[in-house]
Amino acid sequence: MSRVLVTGSVDGLGRFAAEALLSAGHGVVVHARDQERAAVLRPLLERGADLVVGDFGERAAVRRVAAELNDAEPLDAVIHNAGVWSGPAVMPVNVIAPYLLTALLSGPRRLVYLSSGSHFDGRPSLDGVDWRGERAGSYADSKLYVTALAAAVARLRPGVLSNAVDPGWVPTRMGGPHAPDDLELGHRTQEWLAVGDEPEALTTGGYWYHRQRTRPHRAVHDEAFQDRLLRTLAAETGTDL
Questions:
Q1: 209 is annotated as an active-site residue
Q2: Cα–Cα distance measured from residue 106 to residue 174, given in angstroms and rounded to the nearest whole number
């Protein structure tokens, strides 16, 4: 059995993934932005899940959560699920937080990053990006960056399985009630990549949609773009990958 951190697990795909992993007998660490939202996770805590609390829009909170996790029982996998659709928190939550957790957490050998089909509309440019969230960020750009981050980690950390997942446009709070994709399929791929033992689940550097490996934006596997992104994030955060 594995021990898996699922960020952004109060509701939506993160909540479904955490519940499914618990039901399968895995150890799960759930995450909430604040104590008020953490109260919603009580049923999972009563089933044995552990909890971390921190607003991923704030770098200090991400660092504190990483330190707390490093002092606890080791993690086998992380599902970087936390994300926002619009507003100033887009880049801090969708890109800076998973980057910092990737750099700071010790131990996880499987990393799963939530991408989106919207990443195809992202611009492979790092000029003028507001990483600190002082103005609204581009969701499409953020998902292109985090998908490239997943590919870069796969290239630079050969002992780690790093993959990105497009869960589809599913009817969650973010996706809206009329989203056309399958909610059940929307969280199964993340779980499979985090704990599965089939040969396909033990691969790295993939971009997945409903357990099918597909081709991402051409910039994702552009090593020069990956390196520029990593240099930019390292300079911005003061933390090297």
A1: no
A2: 30
What is the C-alpha separation between 139 and 145, in angstroms, rounded?
Answer: 10
Among 99, 113, 139, 207, the one annotated catalytic: 139
| CA atoms within 13 Å, Cβ hemisphere of 66 | 21
Give residue for tokens 């699920």: 81
pLDDT digits (tens, 9 = 90+) for 146-187: 999 999 999 999 999 999 999 976 455 555 555 455 566 778
Catalytic residue among 99, 113, 143, 209: 143
* Helix/strand/coil for 30: strand
CB distance 53 to 32 below 8 Å:
yes
DSSP 93: I
Pairing of strands 212-214, 207-209: antiparallel
Stated pTM of the model: 0.95
Q: Which two tokens stand for residue 200?
A: 């396909």
pLDDT tens sequence across 3-50: 999 999 999 999 999 999 999 999 999 999 999 999 999 999 999 999
Phi, psi angles (nearest 5°) of residue 31: -135, 140
Task: Give tens-digit pLDDT for 198-222.
Answer: 999 999 999 999 999 999 999 999 9
